[in-house]
Amino acid sequence: MNYNSTDIRYMRYALQIAKIGQGETWPNPAVGCVIVSNFDSKKEKPAIIGTGYTNKGGVPHAEIMAMNSVNKNLDGATMYVTLEPCCHIGKSKPCTQAIIKNNLKRVVIAMVDPNPLVAGKGIQELRKNGIEVIVGCCEGEAEEQNYGFIQRITHNMPRITAKLAVTEDNFICRKDDKRIKITNESVDKYVHLMRARHDGILIGNGTYKKDNPQLTVRLDGYNTSLHQFLLSSNGEIKADSNLFIERRNNDLTIITSDETKQSTLEGLEANGIRVLSVKKDLKSGQLDLHNTFENIAKIGINNLLVEPGVILFGSLIESSLPDDIIIFKSHERLKGFGLKVPQINQLLEDKNSKYQKNYEKIIFDTTMFHYKKIK
User: Fold this and answer.
1) Lowest mean pLDDT among 8-17, 31-40, 122-131, 190-199
2) Cα R_g (the chain), whole angstroms
3) Please, which residues bridge with residue 278 across strands?
4) Tell me: the pLDDT tens digits for 343-359?
5) Cα separation of 307 and 166, whole Å?
6) What is residue 42's predicted lDDT score, i.e. its pLDDT?
7) Does the annotation count 63 as an active-site position?
8) Of residues 24, 63, 84, 125, which has the active-site annotation?
9) What does pTM read for this prediction?
10) Neighbour tally for 185: CB within 10 Å
């Protein structure tokens, strides 16, 4: 360990900067970069001279943006970056070459890139060219921030976060299936902020039919077009629904059975809708959720938000698929009108052996519970 408290301070700033790109960088991870002037300079004190973050679709990378933001010579400067710089040609040229060309003296890296195309090779290239490389500064924080990217690369699964709202008496909806408003507008804005930090959002067919949602981010200044996924065994979507009307080319994906008619699939694609065909679960006859998430990972989605109804939430929990579960508990009560969902009670009563409560906090007038899957 060759990093110090100063390195940690700058790296934590880089981790904060990385958040700017969250939700838009996929299939790339969200990376932050900070460049500090020469520590050995006697003329001036060390200071931040450049910052950058990975942009939409991964271009430009954080390191390139940071170096391009500097209007002075980079000789002898130190770079702090939350992920190992790339050393291969993808959508852009290797970051390592640009770092070497700009004559940086020192590069502090939070974590090694799990992508086999990099995976230590970027570090090796920098060291071969006389650059001091320090690895592991704020590593745990960086790994948590890009857990979705790591999981997709290493296990072909996105980070799955299930989000739902419940009443004070733990109901998710009414027995008669009538719509109810559980959280207030302030909490809804918080949820939209959560959406903005994810690459994609998924709902089941029941939620689609009952709520006719838009699945957008309605906050000024934030990405409004996260990728939308709809589970529909037969591939049906109504032409007057919000998802169909407001779709953008390839921003809407319908996940359907591999038994769906070819004519239906062709009709969806002709309307600019991506199609993923997955297997059916042999026991339930529903779409195989594990196979569904594997296919979503293949598209490049790192962080997926699921807003489930009763049936989908039950299936998710029974299969222990979510990495994170977020429950917003309001002061509304349904009493005898509520539909009981045993899996919700098990979680809130800490009786689910696969999940443990990470924390709870107050969001306006609502309590938010965060559960993590036990590894």
Assistant:
1) 31-40
2) 23
3) 257
4) 998 999 999 999 999 99
5) 12
6) 59
7) yes
8) 63
9) 0.93
10) 8
